[in-house]
Amino acid sequence: MPESENTMFIRSDGISAEGIRDQYADGKAAKVWEIFIGDKKSRTQNYKNFLLDLLRSRGCKRILDVACGTGVDSTMLVEEGFEVVSVDASDKMLKYALKERWNRRKESNFDKWIIEEANWLTLYDDIKDFIQGGFDAVICLGNSFAHMTDSYGDQRQQIQAIRNFEKCVKPGGLLLIDHRNYDNIMETGATPSKCIYYNSQHMTDIKTSVLYVSGKPNMVTLDYLISNGSENSEFRLSYYPHCLEVFKNTLKDIFSLESDHEIYGDFKHLGESNPNPAFYIHVVEKHK
Ligand SMILES: C[S@@+](CC[C@H](N)C(=O)[O-])C[C@H]1O[C@@H](n2cnc3c(N)ncnc32)[C@H](O)[C@@H]1O
């Protein structure tokens, strides 16, 4: 389907004015998540080479997935022999990950898979028993981080969350964190419905609404419509529109200027990729 052209520059009904809440609490997105992301294998195909090559080439074995959701990425990593701790704030999403672990508990990797409820704002305390010397890599993927909106206008909660991620990475370890190309969404007012993560044949439309506060884009709300045969499913999710340059500098501030920081656009190094990738993935190494 073509990109949606529908953009509104108003606060729509139902857009939360508060910062931290479980947007998945009504269970609507959780229920159709796997239809939304498309055939698991097609996500895995695109994704596997990138993620596994990157983690393996950097010697990562212990991974913390801080936005595991229904467990799509974590399951892939567990299957591939990584030691995984998965957390998420939404019990509606975690339910599906817990079910997968239960169903596959006889496979020893799945038996060892740790799944906990945790919030990024309190992450370090929520999981301190599992941190040990720090993880080889912390991953926050699938446009998850942008769920943390900016209630105070100074991004303090986003900074607190990234500080918590940083504390969970061992020296020399990695943070992998991504966001949609919001610079492009702001410019065009449209959100691509097909991208590196979501290949669903059933996705029919994403309506894009932008909320401006004091003349600055403060929240993007995406209304998803999924047609699965005769059944239509709709859900709404809100995001903070991270600009690439600002996000890059925030990561540099938290991880220190000396930290190695690579940015990929749709899995390719910036510059090799098309000038308008749908997603950016930042890979930051914590200083030793
Ligand atoms: C877009 S889903 C992505 C899940 C998974 N990574 C994927 O790609 O399929 C985003 C997840 O981030 C979680 N999340 C949002 N804000 C959070 C917070 N403050 N603390 C922990 N998890 C949070 C949501 O509950 C949700 O499951």
From TrEMBL:
It comes from the Eukaryota. GO terms for biological process: methylation; one-carbon metabolic process; protein homotetramerization; regulation of gluconeogenesis; S-adenosylhomocysteine metabolic process; S-adenosylmethionine metabolic process; sarcosine metabolic process. One of its GO terms (molecular function) is identical protein binding. It catalyses: glycine + S-adenosyl-L-methionine = sarcosine + S-adenosyl-L-homocysteine + H(+). Belongs to the class I-like SAM-binding methyltransferase superfamily. Glycine N-methyltransferase family. Its EC number is 2.1.1.20. Residues 61-185 form the Methyltransferase domain. S-adenosyl-L-methionine binds at Y24, W33, R43, A67, D88, N119, W120, L141. Homotetramer. It holds the Pfam family Methyltransf_31. This is Glycine N-methyltransferase. One of its GO terms (cellular component) is cytosol. It comes from Clunio marinus. Keywords: Cytoplasm, Folate-binding, Methyltransferase, Phosphoprotein, S-adenosyl-L-methionine, Transferase. Its main location: cytoplasm. It is found in: Cytoplasm.
